[in-house]
Design brief:
globular
Length: about 400
C-alpha cells in the first residue's frame, strides 16, 4: 500500500507535463500489477484455494455435476480446466490477477488524467480482493467487463460477462440481479436531489445501530440453513463508527455540490454508480458484507468522479476547487492511516499471515515445498486463532 500511495502522490508532480504523466502511469500501473501478481501463497484464504485447486474434479464432472462441489460452478470448472492443462497453482493465481487488471485498465481509459492517483485509491481500498479473494476477484473482473460492453452497446458480450459474474461468486448473482435497475434509470436526467438525499440518509443511518437491526431482521427470513448462516455471518460483522465514513462523506459532498451546477443524464457508468453508492449508504455499518459488494462498484465510482471533476475543470463552480483539494487531502490522510493500522494489526497477530511472500522466494531454489508447507501451516493456525479472536471482537448481536 505504501508503494501505491507514493506512486499516487507522484502523479501530481507531473500534472503540468501530460506526456510525462502518461508515461508515469504506464510504468506505475505495470509496477502495481507486477507487485500484486508475484504474490506466492499469500494470505489465509490460500489454505482453502490451494487444496481445492488440486482436489478439483475432471472437466467433465465439473461441468455435469458442478452443484456437488463446495465452490461456485464457474470457479470449479476453471480450476478443473487449468489443472487438466497442468497449470501450476501459482500461475493460476497470476492469471486471475491478470484478468482483473486487464478489466481495470480497460475501464480507466475513460479517465482523462491522474489515472495513477485513481489506481492508487482502488488498490489501497481493495487490496484484499486482489491479493486473496480469487473467486470474487474473477466475478468483479467480469462485472466490469460487462459494464464496458454495455457502455459500448455490445449486448452479447455483456450477457456472457454477466453469466460469468454470477457463476464465479455468490455475490455476483446478487449484484447482477440488482443491476437490472440499470435498465430502469439509464438515460434519465440525474435528479439534483439524489446525492444530497443520500448524504442525509448516510448521516441518519450513522446514528442508528443498523448492523444489529439487520441481524434481527435476517432472523425472520425462512431460507436454507447454509444461506442463512452466510447472511448472518456477513451482517454480524459491523461497526457503527468507522474511519472510512470520512471517504463516503467527501464522496457524497463532492457529488452533491457538483450536481447543482452540472446537469447530466444517467449514462451507463453513472447508472451503476448510483446503485453502488446506494448500497454503500444502506450497508455502511455492515462493513464485512459491504466490502464484498463495494468491490464491484468501486472502480466505476472512481472513474465517474474523476471524469465529472476533470470534465468541469473550465466550468466556474463556486468552491469546487477547494472541495476537490480537501477531498484529495482526506484521501491521502485516510489511506496513510489505513496502511498504518493494517500493518500494525498484521504485526500484532499471533501468526503473521500477511508477511510478504513472493515467487522470488522459491525461484532458483530447492525450497518450493518447504515454503508452500510453511505458508499453508501458517494459514491453518491463523484460522484457528487470530481469525476466531477477531470474529469474537467484531461480532454484533441482534436487538
Amino acid at each position: 500500500m505504501l508503494i501505491a500511495i507514493a506512486l499516487g502522490l507522484s502523479d501530481f508532480f507531473t500534472s503540468r507535463v501530460p506526456q510525462l504523466q502518461r508515461i508515469l502511469y504506464v510504468v506505475g500501473a505495470f509496477a502495481i500489477y507486477f507487485l500484486f501478481t508475484i504474490k506466492y501463497f499469500y494470505g489465509p484464504d490460500m489454505l482453502h484455494y490451494y487444496n481445492y485447486y488440486y482436489w478439483a474434479p475432471t472437466p467433465y464432472d465439473a461441468i455435469v455435476h458442478s452443484d456437488k462441489y463446495f465452490f461456485e460452478p464457474g470457479y470449479t470448472i476453471l480450476c478443473s480446466l487449468l489443472l487438466d492443462w497442468n497449470i501450476p497453482f501459482y500461475w493460476f493465481t497470476a492469471i486471475i490477477s491478470s484478468i482483473y487488471f486487464f478489466a481495470v485498465f480497460l475501464l480507466f481509459r475513460y479517465i482523462p488524467h491522474h489515472r495513477l492517483f485513481a489506481l492508487m485509491i482502488l488498490v489501497c481500498l481493495d487490496y484484499s480482493l486482489i491479493f486473496a479473494a480469487f473467486r470474487q476477484c474473477l466475478s468483479v473482473s467480469f462485472f466490469l467487463l460487462m459494464v464496458i460492453a454495455l457502455k459500448n452497446k455490445h449486448l452479447i458480450p455483456a450477457l456472457l460477462c454477466a453469466l460469468l459474474t454470477m457463476v464465479m461468486h455468490k455475490s455476483g448473482t446478487f449484484v447482477v440481479g440488482i443491476s437490472v435497475a440499470f435498465f430502469l434509470i439509464k438515460g434519465k436526467t440525474m435528479p439534483q436531489w439524489l446525492y444530497p438525499s443520500l448524504l442525509l440518509l448516510l448521516a441518519v443511518l450513522l446514528l442508528l445501530p443498523m448492523s444489529r437491526i439487520l441481524v434481527s431482521l435476517s432472523s425472520l427470513l425462512h431460507l436454507p440453513t447454509q444461506i442463512m448462516y452466510s447472511i448472518t455471518h456477513h451482517l454480524g460483522l459491523g461497526k457503527q463508527v468507522q474511519t472510512v465514513f470520512l471517504l463516503y462523506l467527501m464522496l457524497l459532498l463532492c457529488l452533491s455540490h457538483y450536481q447543482q451546477y452540472v446537469h447530466t443524464r444517467l449514462t451507463t457508468i453513472a447508472s451503476f454508480v448510483v446503485i453502488g453508492i446506494l448500497l454503500i449508504v444502506l450497508l455502511y455499518q455492515s462493513y464485512y458484507l459491504l466490502n464484498r459488494l463495494r468491490s464491484y462498484f468501486l472502480p466505476l465510482i472512481i472513474v465517474y468522479v474523476f471524469r465529472l471533476v476533470q470534465q468541469t475543470e473550465h466550468t466556474p463552480i463556486p468552491y469546487g476547487r477547494l472541495l476537490v483539494q480537501t477531498a484529495i487531502a482526506v484521501v491521502f490522510i485516510y489511506l496513510g492511516y489505513h496502511a498504518y493500522t493494517f500493518n500494525k494489526a498484521a504485526q500484532q497477530m499471533q501468526y503473521k499471515i500477511y508477511t510478504a511472500c513472493t515467487v522470488f522466494d522459491v525461484i532458483g531454489k530447492n525450497n518450493t515445498k518447504q515454503v508452500q508447507q510453511r505458508q499453508l501451516e501458517l494459514a491453518e493456525k491463523w484460522w484457528k486463532t487470530d481469525f476466531k479472536k477477531g470474529l469474537k471482537q467484531n461480532r454484533v448481536t441482534s436487538l
